[in-house]
């Protein structure tokens, strides 16, 4: 195609032919750009790894895990990538010290253990009333 070729609406032209024509006309104003490179423009593949690719993400591979609650349960593999459910042992590795610390003792409510140090200090007494402290009148 030459730069003087006009593309009209009545002609049967492909989108690629129109793009090449536009590229030729654009290259007349911008002589430093290679026209051969403009000819290889493709519409089927996105030219970016960002915005256009993110629009294609609408299939879910993971859903919420019943044990750890994270969205890490792989639907097809039927395993959690975070806690390893349905395996009986919790998934953890020594190379993931921070991940171990997120689910270790002391990160939850500790319904039993939070009273343990106080009870130990008093000798685990049960069923007795604490002695009243009498204030001195000095």
Can you walk through the features of this model?
With about 140 residues, this protein is mainly alpha-helical. It has helices spanning about 15-30, 35-40, 50-55, 95-100, 115-120; strands at about 60-65, 75, 80. The chain has a three-stranded antiparallel beta sheet with strand order 1-2-3, with no helix packed on it. A hairpin with a 4-residue loop joins strand 2 (about 75) and strand 3 (about 80). The longest helix has 15 residues, at about 15-30. The radius of gyration is 35 Å and the shape is elongated. The model has no long low-confidence stretch (mean pLDDT about 80).
Index terms:
elongated; 138 residues; 3-stranded antiparallel beta sheet; 3 strands; mainly alpha
Brief rundown of the structure:
The protein has helices at residues 15-29, 35-39, 51-54, 97-102, 116-121, and strands at residues 62-63, 73-74, 79-80. The protein is mainly alpha-helical and 138 residues long.
**Intertermini distance:** 111 Å
Strand content: under 5%
Order of helices and strands: HHHEEEHH
Measured as a percent range, the helix fraction is: 25-40%
What's the main sheet like? Answer: 3 strands, antiparallel
State the total count of DSSP E strands. 3
> What is the mean predicted local confidence, pLDDT?
82
Structural class comes to: mainly alpha
Radius of gyration: 35 Å
Q: Give the overall silhouette.
A: elongated
Number of helices: 5
